[in-house]
TrEMBL record:
Belongs to the KdsB family. The keyword Lyase does not apply. It is found in: Cytoplasm; Membrane. Pathway: Nucleotide-sugar biosynthesis; CMP-3-deoxy-D-manno-octulosonate biosynthesis; CMP-3-deoxy-D-manno-octulosonate from 3-deoxy-D-manno-octulosonate and CTP: step 1/1. The gene is kdsB. One of its GO terms (biological process) is CMP-keto-3-deoxy-D-manno-octulosonic acid biosynthetic process. It comes from Melioribacter roseus (strain DSM 23840 / JCM 17771 / VKM B-2668 / P3M-2). This is 3-deoxy-manno-octulosonate cytidylyltransferase.
Length: 253
């Protein structure tokens, strides 16, 4: 069984109560759940919460929900707790709760490598960087990978460094830079192993938990997607999401 889990933390430092933020008359977490359910490969989509208010809202719109402790370190740790309640599930998908317009096709793209190759333990999505703004932004995580499409490193800095480029635009074009889209697919045993390890040095420095996997020798398969994601981390992001919904999503329903 393949299960999509949406971790939803209420006390976001930059946008308090983020899962319940209103977008077009609906809480953000409901948008994420509805779009994740459009995946053709997921057998089940559940939500992992840490707040009673969010729990009640999620129950009201009909999703399967699990309560997890507030002090859990990360969304991945919440998913590991949910995994304990789903013994028949072999693959888990970490779907970010703050990406209300996630496409089901993106989830399916990320899941496919684990279905076709039993040696792949973890997969994730990447997309080509096309602007200088994305290249320079530390909130856009960059990734470099080998000829077999396994990640070599993730960083908030622009990688690879194009030594001979004369302008930032030339760096973007000549470097073939890629950004990481934070959708992860794990085999259950790898997920539980990963969450049992302590934070690693590079993970602490970059504030990127996927580096813990690389430092422990777990290979992460990267899948190139044509789709982009819109993450909501700040009040400004929320306004962008609301405008996007009104202009593009609502009119096509």
């Amino acid at each position: 069984m393949i299960v999509g889990v949406i971790p939803a933390r209420f006390a976001s430092t930059r946008l308090m109560g983020k899962p319940l933020a209103d977008i077009g008359g609906m809480p953000m977490i409901q948008h994420t759940w509805m779009n994740a359910k459009k995946s053709k490969l997921l057998d089940k989509v559940v939500i992992a919460v840490d707040d009673d208010k969010v729990y009640r809202v999620v129950k009201d719109f009909g999703a399967e929900v699990y309560m997890t402790p507030k002090e859990v370190n990360s969304g991945t740790d919440r998913i590991a707790l949910v995994a304990e309640h789903l013994p028949n599930a072999s693959i888990f998908v970490n779907i970010q709760g703050d990406e209300p317009f996630i496409k089901g096709k993106m989830i399916d793209e990320a899941v496919e490598p684990l279905l076709f190759d039993k040696n792949v333990e973890v997969s994730t999505l990447i997309r080509r960087i096309t602007t200088v703004e994305e290249m320079k932004s530390p909130s856009v995580v960059k990734v470099v990978f080998d000829y077999n499409n396994f990640a070599l490193y993730f960083s908030r800095s622009p990688i690879p460094y194009v030594r001979d480029a004369r302008t930032n635009l030339e760096r973007v074009e000549a470097g073939e830079m890629y950004k990481h889209i934070g959708l992860y697919v794990y085999r259950k045993e790898t997920l539980l192993k990963f969450t049992s390890w302590k934070q690693t040095d590079l993970e602490r420095i970059e504030k990127l938990e996927q580096l813990r996997m690389l430092e422990h020798g777990i290979k992460i398969k990267v899948v190139l997607t044509q789709y982009d994601s819109l993450s909501v981390d700040t009040p400004k992001d929320l306004e962008i999401a609301r405008r996007f919904y009104e202009r593009y999503v609502k009119s096509h329903r």
